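Hey, I was hoping to borrow your eyes for a little while. I've dropped the whole record in just underneath, so have a look:

——
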Amino acid sequence: MSASAAASPRLASVDALRGLAVAAMLLVNNPGDWGHVYAPLEHAAWHGCTPTDLIFPFFLFIVGVSIALSLGGRIERGDAAAPMRRTVLERALRIVLLGLALHLLAWWLMDKPEFRPMGVLQRIGLCFALTGLAALSLSARRQWLLLLGLLLGYAALLLWGGPLSKEGNLASRLDAALLGRWAYEWQAATGQGHDPEGILSTLGALATCLLGLRAGELLRRGGRRALALLGLAALALGWAWTPWLPLNKQLWTGSFVLWTGGWACLALALAHELVDRRGWPALGRSFGVNAIAAYAGAWMCTVLLEGFGLMQPLYAGGFGWLQRALGPEQASLAFALAFVLVWALIVRQLDRRRIYIKV
């Protein structure tokens, strides 16, 4: 790869991976029947890691990669840090506010018992802000040290804080204390709560984003071999850590950071080789260049259908025959695939018209 390509602020492989992650989010978030989710699209109940559990970490990893590609060259040129810092913080704030607005819409239209302040976009916004500040303020060595400190420090907190059961772990207890009834799960009778995008577990998510930042810097400098080696090392270390700290997406444990980050590094290295170097089609690119807009639009679509009582009649009318012919799980999967296809057509048209909705 040429030096100019290495310094390019945008790579088709990165857009493709980001887009595939968004499409996968839509797939797992929109089954036709939550009571009969197609088994491979299920998250691990607690400890463990299914292919579905890779999706959100892949997206956060790509957030870090994108920060490296967009800011790395400007930092090297000596551009003023203050305007870049302001841009990072303003975009992060917009992402968080969008997440809050979507949750407000769901609370209002779907008659949810409580408004939930935490969520996927809120976590993305926080990680984007902190990783962007780290890119602008810390040297590469200090970024690695921050990543190591997050992994070890968060692990120490979890292990010191008691059992890693869903009810007894420190992160859930903190969510219960600080979020209370506004957590994703809340039991008023026992005072127990839990949020999969909770407060303390954001430390693990931030570590994933920082790993993406360092991987993006390797990619920007043409370090394909180093990127692959980083992926293999992360996989090995993550797996070796599991006897003491299990893989757990809802806690976003350090072993989960390394395991999912390792796969993300290898996926990035492979996508770069195939798409950027060999010219293979950048599958998923249309989703990738309108990632947040597609996620938010799909969320609004689901909330409006559910809120106005249209989702169940739509599913029954369009996919009831599949349910009778193939079974409820297959019909649920077919609806999810159709939902993704509709949004694939939408983002394809936006891309063709060069309409890119930036948050």
User: Anything to note?
Assistant: Strands lie at 185-187, 192-194. The chain is about 70% helix and 0% strand. The radius of gyration is 20 Å.
